[in-house]
Design brief:
The protein has 19 helices and 16 strands. By secondary structure, it is of the alpha/beta class. The protein has three domains: about 50 residues, no CATH class; about 230 residues, 2-Layer Sandwich (Endonuclease, Chain A), CATH 3.30.870; about 160 residues, Endonuclease, Chain A. It has a 16-stranded mixed β-sheet that branches. A hairpin with a 3-residue loop joins β6 and β7. α1 runs antiparallel to α2, α1 packs parallel to α3 and α14 crosses α19. The longest helix is centred in the first third of the chain and has 22 residues. The chain is globular, with a radius of gyration of 22 Å. The protein starts with a helix and ends with a helix.
Length: about 475
C-alpha cells in the first residue's frame, strides 16, 4: 500500500512539474508552483491543477468563442473609421490609443461627457437615476452582487421597469457572487429579468472555470449612458459592515460615442454567459451622438485576449510619462515588468506617487504589496498609506491622461480576470481625479525610507514570505 501511494505521489508530481515546465507563463510563477508541488504532498499538485494550469495553452477559451464573437471583434475594428474617431495631437495619447486599438479592437472616441463619481453613494445615486429614466433596456454586469440594501433597491427599480416594458439583462460572476448565486438568479428572474452567471461553478466545468473571474463592473442604459469602475453591488460601499469601514472607490459615468464600446463588452460577455444571439442591431447600438468634450477609450482584457492588455496598458502609461505618475490601487502586486518600469521612470526624473490602504481585505495581498516598498522608496518613489480602505484602480500620467476601471495591479487582473478600464484623454477630467488623489494623499502617511527600512525582522520575513507566494495570487 505504501509503495502504491509512493508511486502515485511521484507520478502526480512528475505530471504537475512537467506541465509547469511545458506550459508555465513566467519563470517566477513556475518556480513558485514547483516549490508548492514539492512541499505539499498531493495538495500542491491539486492546487496547481485548480489554479496554476495555463488553460489558454489548451485553447479552452478559444473553444468557447463562436464565429459571432469573432464578428464582434471585427465590428470593433471598423469603429476606428467612424466620424467620432479621435486624431490626437499629443504623441503619448496617439501611441496609447493605437496600442489599445490593436490589443482590444476598441478605438478612442471624442465627444463624450464624463462624470467622476468618488463615493458609493454618488455612484449608486447616479445609477439609480439613470435606471429610472430607462425606456428601452437596462444591461447590468457585476463581479459581486451581494444581498443587502443596494440589491433590494435594484430589485424594486428593475421590477417597475420590467412592468413598464423595459428589457433588463443581468450577468454576474459565479465566484464573486458564489454565496448568493442561485438565490440571486431566482429572485431577479421571478420579475422578468434575464439573469445569467458567467462561468457557473458546476460539476464538470468546476476545475476549468474556478481560477477565472469576470471582474468587470458595467451598466448601460438605452445605449445612451454607461457606468464602469471599481465598485460592486455591496452595502460596504454605503455603510460600514466591517472594521475596514465604508469602502472608498472610484466610478465613472459616460455619455457619448464611447458608450457603444462599453456596451459591446457587455454584449460579448452576455452572449458568452447566456448562449443567446449577439445584440448587435441598432436598438442596442444606437447611432452615437456628441455629448461632451472628452476623448475616452475602453480597454478590455481577459483570458480570451491575444495580449495581456491590462498589463500592457499600465506599462505603456508608465513608460510614456514625462513628468509624473499617480497610482491608487489596493492590490499593488504587479510583477517584475511593471515594477521595473516604475523604478526606471523614477530614476529618469519622473515623479512617481503611489497611494495604498494600510489595511486590506486580504492579509497575504497586503503583506506582499508592502514587500516592494523599501526598493521603491530607495529610488525616490513617493508612497502614501491611507487609513481607510480604498478599492479604486486609478493611474494618471502627466496631469493629462487618466485610467479608471476594474483592473488591479496584480497577476490576477493581468492574466486571469476579465477586466475593463476607461482611459480618459482630457486634462480637465484628469485634474478632477488628481485633485481627489492629492486630497487623499494630504490625509495619508507619507512613508520615509529611513524609517521604513528599519522595520522589524519579523515584518520583513512575513513580507518576504507573502512576496514568494505573490505569483500565485
Amino acid at each position: 500500500m505504501n509503495q502504491l501511494l509512493l508511486i502515485l505521489y511521484f507520478s502526480i508530481n512528475l505530471w504537475a512539474i512537467y506541465s509547469v515546465i511545458m506550459y508555465g507563463s513566467r519563470a517566477t510563477k513556475s518556480l513558485s508552483w514547483v516549490f508548492t508541488i514539492m512541499v505539499f504532498p498531493f495538495a500542491g499538485a491539486l492546487l496547481y491543477y485548480l489554479f496554476g494550469v495555463n488553460r489558454r495553452k489548451f485553447k479552452f477559451f478559444r473553444l468557447k468563442r463562436s464565429q459571432k464573437e469573432n464578428l464582434y471583434q471585427l465590428e470593433n475594428g471598423n469603429d476606428a473609421h467612424t466620424e467620432f474617431g479621435n486624431n490626437f495631437t499629443s504623441k503619448k495619447a496617439k501611441k496609447l490609443s493605437e496600442l489599445f486599438l490593436n490589443t482590444t479592437y476598441l478605438n478612442a472616441f471624442k465627444g463624450n461627457r464624463v462624470e467622476i463619481l468618488n463615493t458609493g453613494k454618488e455612484t449608486f445615486d447616479a445609477i439609480f437615476k439613470a435606471i429610472g429614466k430607462a425606456e428601452k433596456f437596462i444591461h447590468i454586469q457585476y463581479y459581486i452582487f451581494e444581498k443587502g440594501k443596494l440589491q433590494d433597491r435594484f430589485y424594486d427599480l428593475l421590477k417597475s421597469k420590467v412592468e413598464a416594458g423595459v428589457e433588463v439583462r443581468m450577468i454576474y460572476d459565479s465566484f464573486g457572487t458564489f454565496s448568493f448565486s442561485g438565490k440571486l438568479k431566482k429572485r431577479f428572474r421571478s420579475i422578468g429579468v434575464k439573469v445569467y452567471p458567467v462561468m457557473p461553478l458546476r460539476f464538470g466545468n468546476f476545475l476549468f472555470t474556478l481560477n477565472y473571474r469576470n471582474h468587470r463592473k458595467i451598466i448601460v442604459v438605452d445605449g445612451i449612458i454607461g457606468f464602469t469602475g471599481g465598485i460592486n453591488v455591496s452595502d460596504k460601499y454605503i455603510k460600514p459592515v466591517s472594521d475596514l469601514g465604508i469602502w472608498k472607490d472610484l466610478h465613472v459615468s459616460l455619455e457619448g460615442p464611447v458608450v457603444n464600446s462599453l456596451h459591446r463588452v457587455f454584449i460579448k460577455d452576455y452572449h458568452f454567459a447566456s448562449k443567446k444571439k449577439l445584440l448587435l442591431d441598432s436598438k442596442y447600438l444606437p447611432t452615437p451622438k456628441i455629448m461632451g468634450n472628452s476623448a475616452v477609450q475602453i480597454v478590455t482584457g481577459g483570458p480570451d485576449s491575444n495580449q495581456p492588455a491590462i498589463m500592457q496598458q499600465y506599462i505603456a502609461m508608465i513608460s510614456l510619462a514625462e513628468k509624473n505618475i499617480f497610482i491608487a490601487n489596493p492590490y499593488f502586486i504587479p510583477g517584475s515588468a511593471v515594477l521595473q518600469a516604475l523604478i526606471i521612470a523614477s530614476l529618469s526624473g519622473v515623479e512617481v506617487n503611489l497611494l495604498v490602504p494600510r489595511k486590506g481585505d486580504s492579509i497575504l495581498a497586503t503583506y506582499s504589496m508592502f514587500s516592494n516598498f523599501e526598493e521603491f522608496l530607495s529610488v525616490g518613489i513617493n508612497i502614501y498609506v491611507r487609513e481607510g480602505f480604498a478599492h479604486s484602480k486609478v493611474i494618471i500620467i502627466d496631469d493629462e491622461i487618466a485610467s479608471v476601471g476594474s483592473g488591479n495591479f496584480d497577476h490576477r487582473s493581468f492574466e486571469h480576470n476579465f477586466e475593463t478600464n476607461a482611459v480618459i484623454y482630457d486634462n480637465a477630467v484628469t485634474n478632477k481625479i488628481l485633485n481627489e488623489f492629492n486630497l487623499e494623499c494630504s490625509k495619508a502617511e507619507k512613508l520615509s525610507y529611513e524609517v521604513f527600512k528599519n522595520r522589524t525582522k519579523t515584518q520583513k520575513f512575513i513580507e518576504g514570505l507573502a512576496k514568494f507566494f505573490s505569483p500565485l495570487l
